[in-house]
Amino acid sequence: MTIVSRLELDHPVLGTAGGSGLHASIEAIYIKLGNNMADRFFYVKDLNAAASADCDHNYNTAIGNLRIDIYSWNESTGELTFLTESTTPKRSEIAVIAKVGDTLKQITVTNNSSAQVDLGIVTLHDPIEINELIDVDTTGVTNGQVLTYETSTLTWKPATKATYSDATKTVAGLMGIGNQEFSGDKDFFGIISIKDAFKVNRKEITSAYTVDSGTQKDNYLVCKHTAALAIALISAATAGIGRQIIIKDMSASGAFVYNITLTPNGSDTIEGTNSYILMFDKISITLISDGVSNWEVN
Known about the structure:
Strand order of the largest sheet: 11-13-15-19-20-17
Number of domains: 3
Number of helices: 2
Largest sheet: 6 strands, mixed
Strand content: 25-35%
Helix content: under 10%
CATH topology of the largest domain: Immunoglobulin-like
């Protein structure tokens, strides 16, 4: 097994008698240059199955601060192939750990595949950016799409685009151009312009009734009673500031004959009083909550 790196100069002249001093001088220069580079390259030749090799990166930092790229090296063609889970050997078959006893300056590479391999190993110190496109799969990329890292293939791939359907009353989604129902309270800031018709929740009542006791919040109550009618309000605090409720007399005999009595909740008031009576035929009033304890009559 041969390791060629920044620490080993594999040249026969530098190893012959009389060349050792030159070898040492050049090696010292080579190491100083290498220590100031942001990456290291190692060529590990003839690494047998289950065998290990130590590579001296000399960054003086934990292995977690390094990016380590592994390549298979075809010696006959000089071609480097970035290892993934689809290559031979697989990337997961080449283990890399900090060397025991020198965890800040060396790594140990172990061949866990079943065959001898030639490897090219690149270590980069504290890499933030994607330096090359060797580990990026750009298949099917569209404008504005982001990349996500896939650990199974050790590559960056286009993120799967989320797909959304139009929202329904019970399922979140997009606002489409068709008819839709939405749930939950929504706050909008700024001017809301309605270019077409505006609808309210209209409910007919014929006997004593408590506001919001149905499946939907009440907006427009139409009174078609045949006897005196009592309507109990929810608390102004629960209703929230600005909540409106419209009450309209549409009874056959009229509110003059059969009064409509509005009762606030608990210690709440209506216009400062503890009850409010509608006694004019076909009368219509709008109640507006102050969000605290009072309903104002418009």
